[in-house]
């Protein structure tokens, strides 16, 4: 078996988080190799809704939210789907998810989300400058639309949490939002505009543009499946792939929803779930949106992209290995037609990807306890696109021993 040790840092995972980590580490002077079984930006980073949301500071789990879960899961068109055979495996994660909604924790989680998301649009603009991909990042509002005006009440918890952190919000009626987005259905009676955001009009191409930039700096991308991580007696890590072993001084595990499987043999057990999301793209939509829009009731987002109108969202818990259920994508497609009555639905493509979800809505970023040279950067859930640039800056600081741009403690791996 041939062993190689020609790169100082090996990044496992070529999603947007892994790509940004490789890019920043290369800029810091490290030689970097990236391993991924599918290639750059081919997993969850390919199919997301494209929202770059510096103001997303509300945890997924909130006090009292548990009351809605049965209704969500039992409704075939609801925002959460559960394969019931998977429930026994999922129960411990659900217990942690509900526990994270305590009043003593949600403000700390919100502050940590806010810090990690801050400046994301400007960080991306800096990353794409000079690449030819500058047009991929567009200024945008993120418009949450509601059928029930009470859900757009500034006194409700999710809006209070944002307002307390200075998030620029505008509360409007449905008629006012249709002046901004004229194709919206009349069934929406209220909306909240989250301003000073951005959107990416092709997340997959963004990842590939940044990967190409990294390659020009000397980063090597290799398509292979990582099977095992072994700490060698020579103070190097050995990465076993399907056909050989690679040695590296330091590792960054950015394998998304698959990361926990590589950590478990090392005795590190992380409550990480695959929160599977679906999208439907209408390739000849006949309508164009000026902003990203979230249906606040059905929990799916819609955005105009290079490839057409992408409608993405919902959450399915079935495990990493279950086959896709494209009925979930068809549900999103039907709901999008209700949202946008003039939408042309004749040309459609569907997709499924696995989000890496922690029970407290925060990613795991930092060193792995008791494993010198192993760092982690996974668990970003719905916010991987937004959080990738800051995660990369943090990872580079940790590996190089320089001050971290934000306080790293909330994201530590051993917090569970």
Structure description:
- With 416 residues, the protein is α/β, with parallel strands linked by helices.
- The protein is built from eleven helices and 18 strands.
- The two termini are 37 Å apart.
Element layout with pairings:
Elements: E1 7-12, H1 16-27, E2 32-36, E3 51-52, H2 69-74, E4 80-82, H3 87-99, H4 103-117, H5 120-128, E5 137-146, H6 157-164, E6 169-173, H7 174-180, E7 190-200, H8 203-216, E8 220-223, E9 226-231, E10 237-241, E11 245-253, H9 259-263, E12 273-282, E13 292-295, E14 300-305, E15 308-317, H10 327-339, E16 348-357, E17 364-367, E18 374-378, H11 384-400
Parallel strand pairs: 1-2, 1-11, 2-8, 4-15, 5-13, 11-18
Antiparallel strand pairs: 3-7, 5-7, 6-7, 9-10, 10-11, 12-15, 12-16, 13-14, 14-15, 17-18
Helix pairs in contact: 1-8, 1-11, 5-11
Structural class: alpha/beta
- Any idea of the CATH topology of the largest domain? D-Amino Acid Oxidase, Chain A, domain 2
Q: Structurally, how many domains make up the residues? A: 2
Total beta strand runs: 18
Beta-strand content estimate: 25-35%
Average of pLDDT: 95
Portion of residues within helices: 25-40%
* Quaternary organisation: single chain
Kindly provide the name of the CATH class of the largest domain.
Alpha Beta
The CATH homologous superfamily name of the largest domain equals: D-Amino Acid Oxidase, subunit A, domain 2
User: Which runs of at least 5 residues are low in confidence (pLDDT < 50)?
Assistant: none
CATH architecture level-2 label of the largest domain: 2-Layer Sandwich
Radius of gyration: 21 Å
Major sheet size, sense and barrel closure: 10 strands, mixed
Q: What is the terminal separation in angstroms?
A: 37 Å
């Amino acid at each position: 078996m041939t062993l190689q040790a020609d790169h100082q840092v090996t990044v496992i995972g070529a999603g947007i988080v892994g790509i940004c980590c490789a890019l920043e580490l290369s800029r810091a002077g490290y030689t970097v190799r990236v391993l991924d079984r599918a290639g750059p930006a081919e997993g969850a980073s390919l199919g997301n809704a494209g929202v770059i949301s510096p103001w997303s500071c509300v945890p997924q789990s909130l006090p009292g939210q548990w009351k809605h879960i049965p209704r969500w899961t039992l409704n075939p068109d609801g925002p959460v789907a559960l394969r019931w055979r998977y429930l026994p495996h999922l129960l411990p994660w659900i217990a942690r998810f509900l526990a994270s909604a305590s009043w003593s924790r949600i403000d700390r989680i919100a502050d940590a989300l806010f810090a990690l998301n801050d400046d994301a649009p400007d960080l991306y603009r800096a990353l794409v400058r000079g690449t030819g991909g500058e047009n991929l990042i567009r200024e945008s509002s993120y418009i949450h639309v509601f059928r029930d005006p009470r859900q757009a009440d500034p006194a409700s918890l999710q809006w209070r949490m944002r307002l307390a952190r200075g998030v620029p919000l505008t509360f409007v009626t449905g008629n006012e939002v249709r002046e901004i987005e004229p194709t919206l259905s009349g069934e929406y009676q209220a909306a909240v505009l989250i301003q000073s955001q951005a959107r990416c009009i092709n997340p997959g191409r963004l990842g590939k543009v940044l990967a190409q930039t990294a390659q020009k700096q000397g980063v090597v991308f290799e398509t292979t499946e990582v099977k095992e991580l072994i700490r060698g007696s020579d103070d190097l890590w050995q990465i076993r792939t399907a056909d050989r072993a690679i040695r590296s001084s330091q590792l960054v595990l950015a394998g998304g929803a698959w990361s926990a499987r590589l950590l478990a043999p090392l005795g590190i057990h992380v409550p990480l779930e695959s929160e599977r999301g679906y999208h439907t793209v209408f390739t000849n939509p006949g309508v164009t949106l000026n902003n990203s829009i979230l249906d606040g009731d059905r929990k799916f987002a819609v955005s105009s992209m290079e490839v057409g109108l992408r409608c993405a969202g919902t959450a399915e818990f079935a495990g990493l290995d279950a086959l896709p259920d494209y009925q979930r994508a068809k549900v999103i497609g039907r709901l999008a037609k209700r949202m946008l009555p003039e939408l042309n639905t004749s040309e459609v493509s569907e997709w499924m990807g696995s989000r890496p979800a922690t029970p407290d809505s925060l990613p795991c970023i930092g060193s792995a306890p008791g494993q010198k040279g192993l760092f982690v950067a996974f668990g970003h859930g719905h916010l991987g696109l937004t959080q990738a640039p800051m995660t990369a800056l943090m990872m580079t600081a940790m590996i190089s021993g320089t001050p971290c741009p934000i306080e790293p403690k909330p994201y530590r791996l051993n917090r569970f």
